[in-house]
Structure formats: structure tokens, C-alpha cells
């Protein structure tokens, strides 16, 4: 079959043809304290130990601390200098860690809050991350769902949401996914000429009984069949990967399938369980000793669980490379 025969519809490429050089993984969540930094650093360490050139980017502006998980002091260079110097390359603030094949980019040496990152800064950083030479880039994001955090989350090749079994964490995870869903729609509405019709729908959402993102897509597909189908196809490419952290019981570990079901019903998007991590006091005990659990307690059950998650990431990267 000729290449032209398999060409995808033009609207599937409306965000541009440019692809990142690395497999970019964004780790987000709706609430602080769910273990995003622990999960991000663990994946980065495992991937680097597998021989992959890995970059861990701490984008938790105003609260960056992932260097602590790597047994490092506060780096002397970081994103503050990158933003201040327009000609500086991102690789110039990429610093080595104590782990082979793993480097760190951080904003820990400044007090910038995520809301202080301008659109220009954000765009430049995203472009630089796309150009960075690596096998994997892991973005450890700020808690919450600010526009800046969501944009970094959506720019990634693969999106991960970390949550715990506590009701507040689950509720905030739903809110984060919902915000990411609508932010992604926002990125396409101009290109598909949907701005006016979407605004009209949202102004009458109560009257039209639109209570969820899935309801919005269903209504749009029914009343604007062509553009609704285009938007639905674009949104079907959006898949969330879940990591359930700090499970204490079998009931906690059985929570993930329910979350997957709700996401499919409520959002109309696919959520896959990437892995589950049990609660273990060794995590904070290792951190108090300024060592990562993977180094300090390799005999922990968490070691195997985190290795499974990291190997799953490797499989996804290889699968996408083949496709």
C-alpha cells in the first residue's frame, strides 16, 4: 500500500508535525502529598539503570524538592537562569546526578511560583524539552490544575496521574483529569472552528443536561456530526495512566478498576492502570536518611512494584516507536 493511502486525516495533525526527540512522561495529580515526586524519581532511576539516557525535570515551581530524593543538595543552576537568559540552552542547566544515565533539571534554586511562569517562558521551555536529546524525559509537575501545569501535562507523550485511596485524593484526581480534558479540547476548538458552538453549548449546559465531558462530546457529535466526530477522534487519542500509591489493604488495591470505569463513563476517555504501590514506612525513613528507597531498601516490596511500572513505560515507548 502506498504511503498516501494510509495518510491520516489532516485534522489529526493540526497541532503540528513536530515530535519530541525523547519519550516524555508527565506525572501529575490533583493533590499534593500523593507521592508524585517519589514515583517520578523512582521511574527515572529504574529507566537510567536499564541503560536509557533519562532526564528528570522538576517543574514543581515554588516547591521543587526532587533533588532530595536523589540525595543531592540544592543545585546551583536551574530554570531560573534559563528563563533569564534567552540564548541559554536547556542542556546548560541539565546537571548530573549520582546515578549513571540520569540527569536533573530543576527550579529548586529559585522561588518562582507556577503562576509566575509566563506564556513565553512556558513555550520556550516546552520547545526546548522537545529538542532535548534523551531516551526518556520525566516531568514532575506541580500539584493542582493551573493552566501552566495542564499545558506541561498535555505536551507529554504519556500522561500519568498519581493518586492515593483516600476519598479526597480520588476526588481531586477526577477534577484534575476533567480539567485536563477541557484544556485539551480548548487546544483544538480554534482549529476545528468550534469556539462559537462550544461557548453556546456551555452557556446552556444545564438546560441541555450536559453534566460531564462525555455528555459534551455526545451532544456535539449529534448536532455537529462532522466536527463532533473530528473532535471525538482527537480526544480518543488522550489516554490517562493511573498509579495508585500508598495502598494499605486489598480494598484499596481494588479501587483502580472502579476509577477506570468512572473515567470511561464520565469522560469518555480511556484510563489504564499502570501500577499499584503499597504503603511502606521505608519510603519516609529512607528519605530522612537522604537516600532513595531503591538504594536504601532494595529488599522492599515496593522495589518490585516500581520496577514493574518502569518496565511498562519501556514497553510503551518501544511500542510507539514501532508504530
**Broad shape:** globular
Give the helix level as a range of percent: 40-55%
Strand order of the largest sheet: 3-4-2-5-1-6-7-8
Assembly of the depicted chains = single chain
Order of helices and strands: EHEHHEEHEHEHHHHEHHEHHH
The total beta strand count reads 8
Keywords, separated by commas or semicolons:
eight-stranded mixed sheet, globular, Rossmann fold, disordered N terminus, 323 residues, alpha/beta
Task: Compile the SSE list and pairings.
Layout (H helix, E strand, L loop, with lengths): L22 E6 L7 H14 L4 E6 L6 H4 L9 H6 L10 E2 L5 E5 L12 H13 L4 E6 L5 H9 L2 E6 L3 H23 L5 H9 L9 H11 L1 H11 L3 E9 L2 H4 L1 H12 L3 E9 L3 H7 L4 H4 L4 H22 L1
Parallel strand pairs: 1-5, 1-6, 2-4, 2-5, 6-7, 7-8
Antiparallel strand pairs: 3-4
Helix pairs in contact: 1-14, 5-6, 8-9
Summarize the structure.
It contains 14 helices and 8 strands.
What would you say this structure looks like, in words?
- This protein is α/β, with parallel strands linked by helices and 323 residues long.
- The protein has a single domain, classed as Rossmann fold (3-Layer(aba) Sandwich), CATH 3.40.50.300.
- It contains 14 helices and 8 strands.
- The protein has an 8-stranded mixed sheet, with helices on both faces.
- A hairpin with a 5-residue loop joins strand 3 and strand 4.
- Helix 5 packs across helix 6 and helix 8 packs antiparallel against helix 9.
- The protein starts with 22 loop residues before the first strand and ends with a helix.
Amino acid at each position: 500500500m502506498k504511503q498516501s493511502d494510509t495518510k491520516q486525516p489532516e485534522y489529526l495533525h493540526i497541532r503540528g508535525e513536530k515530535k519530541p526527540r525523547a519519550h516524555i512522561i508527565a506525572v501529575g495529580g490533583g493533590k499534593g502529598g500523593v507521592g508524585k515526586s517519589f514515583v517520578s524519581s523512582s521511574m527515572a532511576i529504574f529507566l537510567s539503570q536499564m541503560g536509557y539516557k533519562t532526564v528528570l525535570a522538576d517543574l514543581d515551581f515554588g516547591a521543587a524538592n526532587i533533588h532530595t530524593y536523589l540525595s543531592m543538595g540544592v543545585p546551583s543552576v536551574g530554570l531560573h537562569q534559563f528563563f533569564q537568559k534567552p540564548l541559554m540552552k536547556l542542556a546548560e542547566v541539565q546537571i548530573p546526578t549520582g546515578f549513571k544515565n540520569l540527569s536533573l533539571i530543576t527550579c529548586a534554586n529559585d522561588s518562582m511560583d507556577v503562576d509566575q511562569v509566563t506564556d513565553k517562558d512556558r513555550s520556550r521551555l516546552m520547545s526546548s524539552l522537545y529538542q532535548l536529546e534523551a531516551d526518556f524525559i520525566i516531568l514532575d509537575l506541580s500539584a493542582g490544575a493551573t493552566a501552566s501545569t495542564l499545558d506541561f501535562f498535555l505536551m507529554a507523550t504519556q500522561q500519568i496521574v498519581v493518586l492515593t485511596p483516600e476519598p479526597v485524593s480520588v476526588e481531586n484526581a477526577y477534577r484534575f483529569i476533567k480539567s485536563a480534558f477541557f484544556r485539551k479540547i480548548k487546544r483544538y476548538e480554534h482549529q476545528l472552528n468550534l469556539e462559537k458552538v462550544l461557548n453556546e453549548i456551555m452557556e446552556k449546559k444545564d438546560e441541555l443536561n450536559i453534566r460531564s465531558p462525555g455528555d459534551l462530546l455526545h451532544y456535539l457529535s449529534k448536532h455537529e456530526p462532522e466536527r463532533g466526530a473530528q473532535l471525538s477522534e482527537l480526544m480518543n487519542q488522550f489516554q490517562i495512566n493511573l498509579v495508585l500509591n500508598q495502598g494499605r489493604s486489598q480494598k484499596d488495591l481494588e479501587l483502580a478498576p472502579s476509577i477506570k470505569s468512572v473515567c470511561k463513563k464520565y469522560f469518555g476517555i480511556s484510563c489504564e492502570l499502570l501500577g499499584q504501590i503499597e504503603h511502606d514506612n521505608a519510603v519516609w525513613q529512607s528519605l530522612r536518611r537522604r537516600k532513595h528507597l531503591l538504594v536504601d531498601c532494595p529488599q522492599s516490596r515496593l522495589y518490585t512494584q516500581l520496577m514493574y511500572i518502569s518496565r511498562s513505560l519501556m514497553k510503551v515507548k518501544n511500542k510507539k516507536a514501532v508504530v
